[in-house]
Amino acid sequence: MIEEVVRTGLARYEYRHFIIFGAVSQFAAMATECAGDQGAWWEFHDAYLLDAQARSFTRAGAIELARDEGLDLARFTQCIDDEEHRERLLQMQIQARADGVSGTPTFRINGAPAARSLSGIIDQVQAAAEAAETAENSEGG
């Protein structure tokens, strides 16, 4: 359902890292961003972050997965060792806290907190779209 409203342009899906488990979470976010530098953000994210049973959030685990994903290991390793994305990740964290985010996942619609259920989120997106359409029609006519 979310895919449908995103595909139609009714909604936009944005993913932002939110560091909830300290250094471990920060490293996982960093490794995911480094994989993204090579065009494998979602593949790495899904395998590394969603399959936590299979891999620990360690440098060795990240490099193993990067190898499995066919990434340039020297480039990937350099990226995580140099913490190339550290500042941007910290800025995401600061912005999330300023926006009132305190955990994951967090959904927002037009900047406001969204419902907790998928059906509630869909209803809110549709209501926001209808309100925008009504406002657009009243301005144009």
- Shape from CA axes? elongated
Tell me what portion of residues adopts beta-strand conformation: under 5%
Task: Calculate the mean pLDDT score and round it.
Answer: 86
Straight-line distance between termini = 32 Å
Backbone CA Rg = 18 Å
- Record the strand order, biggest sheet: 1-2
Secondary-structure-based class equals: mainly alpha
Short description:
The chain is an all-alpha fold and 141 residues long. Helix content is 60%, strand content 3%.
Outline the structure in words.
By secondary structure, the chain is mainly alpha-helical. The protein has a two-stranded antiparallel sheet with strand order 1-2. Helix 2 runs antiparallel to helix 5 and helix 4 runs antiparallel to helix 5. The longest helix is centred in the last third of the chain and has 23 residues. The mean pLDDT is 86.
Give the key terms.
141 residues, two-stranded antiparallel sheet, mainly alpha, 3% strand
Secondary-structure blueprint:
Blueprint (H helix, E strand, L loop, with lengths): L1 H6 L15 H14 L4 H9 L9 H10 L4 H9 L4 H13 L9 E2 L2 E2 L4 H23 L1
Antiparallel strand pairs: 1-2
